[in-house]
């Protein structure tokens, strides 16, 4: 019958070099620029802005981890040591009590609530209440 004729969309040329297709071939809204081409000024600015935003978000997320809230633990006192200012719970965990803490108000076998933070390898208690 009739021969099949394929027509290409018109191309824009500048100094004999291909700039872009007149139509969007891939359907993604991007021009057919060659891969690895040097970004335009606007693309470079957008990349810097996006990179800066991602860096800022990552820094803020990391800062939130570093400033974690104190932890609260419930347990039963196994031992109190007034000399070293420590309390040991029935599960074996040891907490460093603040200097000047009145440990005499508590006794072994009593249920307590300890508010503490990790300082190096030590569980440093900021408060202990009967619970």
What is the oligomer described by this structure? single chain
Overall form: elongated
Beta-strand segment tally: 7
- Head-to-tail CA distance between termini: 94 Å
Remind me, CATH topology of the domain at 71-130? OB fold (Dihydrolipoamide Acetyltransferase, E2P)
Structure explained in plain terms:
This protein is an alpha+beta fold and 131 residues long. The chain has a domain at 71-130: Copper binding periplasmic protein CusF (OB fold (Dihydrolipoamide Acetyltransferase, E2P)). It is 20% helix and 34% strand. It contains one helix and seven strands; from the N terminus they run E-E-H-E-E-E-E-E. The protein has one helix spanning 41-66, and strands at residues 11-14, 17-21, 71-81, 86-89, 94-96, 111-119, 122-130. Strands 3-4-5-7-6 form a five-stranded mixed β-barrel. A hairpin with a 2-residue loop joins strand 6 and strand 7 (122-130). The longest helix is centred in the middle third of the chain and has 26 residues, at 41-66. The radius of gyration is 34 Å and the shape is elongated. The N and C termini lie far apart (94 Å). The mean pLDDT is 76.
């Amino acid at each position: 019958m009739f021969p099949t004729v394929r027509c290409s969309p018109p191309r824009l040329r500048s100094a004999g070099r291909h700039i872009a297709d007149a139509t969007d071939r891939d359907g993604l809204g991007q021009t057919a620029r060659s891969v690895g081409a040097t970004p335009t000024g606007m693309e470079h600015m957008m990349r810097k802005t996006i990179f800066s935003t991602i860096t800022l978000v990552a820094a803020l997320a990391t800062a939130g981890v570093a400033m974690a809230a104190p932890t609260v633990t419930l347990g039963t006192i196994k031992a109190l040591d007034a000399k070293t200012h420590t309390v040991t719970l029935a599960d074996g965990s040891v907490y460093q009590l603040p200097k000047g803490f009145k440990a005499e108000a508590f006794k072994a076998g009593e249920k307590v609530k300890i508010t503490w933070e990790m300082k190096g390898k030590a569980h440093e208690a900021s408060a202990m209440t009967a619970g």
